Amino acid sequence: GHRVGLYKHVFPPNLEHPTLAIVGFIHSDGAIMPQAEMQARFVARVFAGHKKLPANQAMIKAVEKDTKQIEKSYVVSKLTPLQVDFVEYMDDLAKDIGVRPSLLWLLFTDFPLFKRVFWGPVTAYQYRLMGPGKWIGARKAIFTQLDRMYQPLKTRKLTINQSSTTGRLIKLSLIVMTGGAALYYFHVHNPTTIPILMSKFHLQTV
Questions:
Q1: Which residue of 71, 82, 159, 175 shows the fewest CB atoms closer than 10 Å?
Q2: Is 89 found in the same domain as 35?
Q3: Full residue range of the structural domain in which residue 196 is found
Q4: Hey, how many other C-beta atoms are within 10 angstroms of the C-beta on 166?
Q5: Residues 90, 2 within the same domain
Q6: Same domain, 143 and 182
Q7: Are 20 and 48 in the same domain?
Q8: What is the pLDDT of residue 79?
Q9: Which pLDDT belongs to residue 153?
Q10: Domain boundary at 51, 80, 97, which?
Q11: Could you tell me which residues come within 8 angstroms of residue 63 by beta carbon, excluding any fewer than 6 positions away?
């Protein structure tokens, strides 16, 4: 087909030893540089001997499975042979490296950070919270990333009245929209889960 046959979009699966890696050769619905960084971290773990790749046949089967999965959500053609889903791909590599943040752990140990990671934008900072390459400044960077995003758009810094009704409505609207987006994303990738839960709830209420 049109897919590039690289394991995790990085390693050729037919080499005797993993001595060649392709970094940044990818197309996504998100930023390329964070993904290239994650690929480089994955490669570094493999080259250093901290991560062992599966057998050649297992990698080839993984490439075939990945191709089938991506074709369910995207049109894969000769013009888009490198397409991946940004969040899924980042989480997949992060899991292999050992740096994927545990939302359950954050929920019980650092709820403010949990909210930022769960409802906030997916950026490279959250993959520096734990595991190899952990960065002590990752938490602060996550809490201030929106400030850095909005700052260039302002001509002057304004004092915001936190208790204003408008501010509360805006905040509530953002929470509802992000929650709805998260629910939609979950439903697209797990189409049977929500209907099953709803049917169980309906039976209990009846």
A1: 159
A2: yes
A3: 160-206
A4: 8
A5: yes
A6: no
A7: yes
A8: 63
A9: 81
A10: 97
A11: 3, 5, 6, 7, 13
Q: Which of 6, 9, 53 minimizes the C-alpha distance to 28?
A: 9
Does 84 lie in the same domain as 172?
Answer: no
Q: Which of 61, 79, 97 is the last residue of a domain?
A: 97
Same structural domain, 107 and 194: no
Count helices and strands in the chain by DSSP H and E runs? 8, 2
The strand pairing partners of 11, in sequence order, are 7
Amino acid letter at 50?
H
3-state class of 173 per DSSP?
helix
DSSP E strands: which ranges in 61-126?
83-84
* Residues 89 and 35: beta-carbon distance below 8 Å: yes
- Give residue 200's pLDDT: 64
Instruction: Taking each helix axis as running N to C, give the angle between helix 32-47 and helix 86-97, from 0 to 180 degrees, rounded to the nearest 10.
Output: 20
**Nearest-CA neighbor of 8 among 34, 36, 29?**
36
129 and 151 fall within a common domain:
yes
Neighbour count for residue 73 (Cβ, 10 Å):
14
- CA–CA gap between residue 70 and residue 28 (Å, rounded): 11
Q: Which amino acid is at 188?
A: V
What does the CA dihedral 47, 80, 188, 65 come to, rounded to 10 degrees?
-50
Could you report the per-residue pLDDT of 41-56, keeping only the tens digit for each?
999 999 999 999 999 9
Angle at 123 between CA 139 and CA 61, to 5 degrees: 125
Query: What pLDDT, in 10s, does the model give residues 53-89?
Result: 999 999 999 999 988 888 887 776 766 677 888 999 9
Residue ranges, the chain, pLDDT below 50: none
> Do 142 and 83 lie in a common domain?
no
Report the number of distinct structural domains present in the chain: 3
